[in-house]
Amino acid sequence: xxWFAGTSESPSxxxxxxxxxxxxxxxxxxxxxxxxxxxxxxxxxxxxxxxVLGVCGATDAELEVGLAVARGGALRHLTGWAGSYHVVLRxxxxxxVLGDLAGxxxxxxxxxxxxxxxxxxxxxxxxxxRAGLDTEAFAARLACPDVPELVAGRSMFTGVSRLxxxxxxxxxxxxxRVRLYEQHRSPLDFPGAADALGRALTDAVGRRVAxxxxxxxxLSGGRDSAVLALLGARALTKGTARDLVAVTWAEPxxxxxxxxxxxxxxxxxxxxHLVIPGGVDHLPYTGLADVLDGTVMPDEPGFSLxxxxxxxxxxxxxxxxxxxxxxxxxxxxxxLGTPLAYLADLAMDRRRVxxxxxxxxxxxxxxxxxxxxxxxxxxxxxxxxxxALDRLAEVFAxxxxxxxxxxxxxxxxxxxxxxxxxTPDMRHRLAVSLRRLAGESVVSAGSVVAADPAVHGxxxxxxxxxxVRRAAERQRAYQxxxxxxxxxxxxxxxxxxxxxxxxxxxxxxxxRDDGPRALLTAAVQGLIPSHALGTVHRADYTEAERxxxxxxxxxxxxxxADPLLGELGVLDPVGxxxxxxxxxxxxxxxxxxQAVRPDLPLGPLADIVSAELWLRGVWEGRVMRWDAxxxxxxxxxxxxxVA
Length: 643
Known about the structure:
CATH class of the largest domain: Alpha Beta
Strand order of the largest sheet: 2-3-1-9-8-10
Shape: globular
CATH topology of the largest domain: Rossmann fold
Number of strands: 17
InterPro entries: Asn_synthase, Ntn_hydrolases_N, Rossmann-like_a/b/a_fold
Low-confidence stretches: 445-451, 587-592, 633-643
Protein name: Asparagine synthetase domain-containing protein
Organism: Embleya scabrispora
GO molecular function, one term: asparagine synthase (glutamine-hydrolyzing) activity
Number of helices: 24
CATH architecture of the largest domain: 3-Layer(aba) Sandwich
C-alpha cells in the first residue's frame, strides 16, 4: 500500500521506514510505498511548491495555472480537475493539504509531542503516536452511520484527527487550522445539471483512459458501470489501436450479468470482454481464515470484508489481464440516486399534490402505502435536524430498536439495525453524544458552518451527501485493498467535479417519470448509443450472500465465540450470537448445510462480521506502519493501545 506523510515543526518525528523524500527541510513531505510515476507530480514557482498525489487528469499547463491561482488563496480551483488525488502546497513555513469532496482522498493529522504530523492514512499516525482505538467513534459508525456528524473530525483512533471533506488543513509553525473551501452554491436546474454531469464524466473517464496503456472497466454493476465502459470505449476511438477490457463477474447464484454485458460489448468495436467465473469458493463469508491470516487492513472497516474471496479473485484476474487502470461504477447510486427522504423536501415546500403523487409511485414500487409515505414526509418536514437528533438519542437511551418502515426511510436520521446489538453502556454514551450534537447543531445553524454543502436544512439533500460520503469510505477501503494486489481501481462517479455536478440538482428534482437514472441518461445523450442501455441488467446477489452464510455457518459461529467487539464493550456477544443463530437457522437436508431465514436482513450481519475481521487485523498489526523495521515489533503498539 502507498501513502504520504509530512510534518510541520516536528523535528522529533523520524522519516517513515522505506520512505523517499519529496521535499525536505523543516516541513518535509515523504512518500511511502510503490508510487507510479504519473501519480507524483510536483510544480513550483519561487517559494511556492505544489505536489499533486494520485490520479489527476490535469495537463502540465493546467497545473501551472492552478499554482498561480493557489498563490491568491483560491483553493477550490485545485480540486476541480478530473481524477482522485491529494494536493499539498508549501510556501515558506506554511503548508496546506487538501483531499477531495467525497472523502475518498482523506487527510489525517496528529500531535506527536512537538508540532503537527499529517498523512493520507490514519493507521501510520496511530502507529507513530501509539494511539488506541476510539471505541465510541467505532461504535457510532456501526450503530449510527446516518449521522456522520457524530464522528466529524475523528478517525478510528484517539488523538488522530480526520479532515472533513470540503476542508483544507493549514499548518503554520507547527499549528494546525482547518479551513472550509467548499461553499454551498445555488442549485442547478435539470438541463444545467445534466450538461455539467456529462462534461465531468467525459473528462473523468477520458483522461484516465488516455493515460492508461491497458484500461479496464467493470461491467457487472448495471447502468452506471455500463455508461463508464461505453465512455471509455468512445475515448479510445480517436486514433488508437488499444481496446478497453470490460470485466464481468459471472455469479452462479445471480445469472444474467454476462449475457447483458456481452450485448453491450457487442455494440462497441473498442470493448473486449473478460468474464470471470465465480464458484462456491468465492461466495460471501468464504475464506474468512484467509482474511484473518494475510489481509493488510484499511484505515477503517468501510469495505465489506465478507466478500474478500470474490474481491481477491476479481483483482487477481484484472492484474493478470495486464489492466493498469480499472474503472468501476461504484458511487453512482449515491451521486445519481434519489433518497426517499426527498419526499420530506417536497413537503417542506408545501407541494402537497406533488408529494402525494410521488408517494403513490414509491408506494407501488416498494410495496408500501403511498398515503403512509406522504403522511410520514409531512411529519418529518415539520421536524428540524436537532429535534431529530434528540429523538434518536431517546432511541439509544432505550433498546436501540427502531421501526424499519417508511418512517426510517424518510427520517432525517435513524439507528442502524446493528444498534440493538450494542451494549447498554455504549448506547448510553452514544445517546449523550447525540444530545450534545443536537445542541451544537442549533447553535451552528446560522453560522459559517452552514456554508458547508453537507450541512443542509432539508432531509433529502442531506441524505444525498451522507450517501456520497459513505460510498467514498467504502471505495477508499477497496482501493487500499486493491493496491496490495497491484491494481489501480478508480471510481469516477466519486470525483469532485462529478459529485459537484450530480448534487447540484436538488434531491427532489432527480426523480422523474422518464425512466431510471434520468439525469445520467440526459447527461450522456449523444455521447454513447442510447439503445445500448436498454438491455442493462443488474444482478441481485442476495441469494449468493444467503448461500455463503449457510455454507460458512460454522466459521461464523467460531468467529463470534469470543469476539473483540464484545471484549471492547462495543457489542453484546450474546445478542450477536443469537441473531446469527436466527439468521442461519437449523440444519437443512442438503449435505448438512444450514437453512437461512429469508426474512432477516443480511446487511447488519455483514457489517458486524467485517468489523470483527478488521479489529482482529488491527490487533495483530496487519496494518500500514510508520516504523516497520524488524525491531519495532509489528502489531505491539496498536494492539497494546487497543487492548
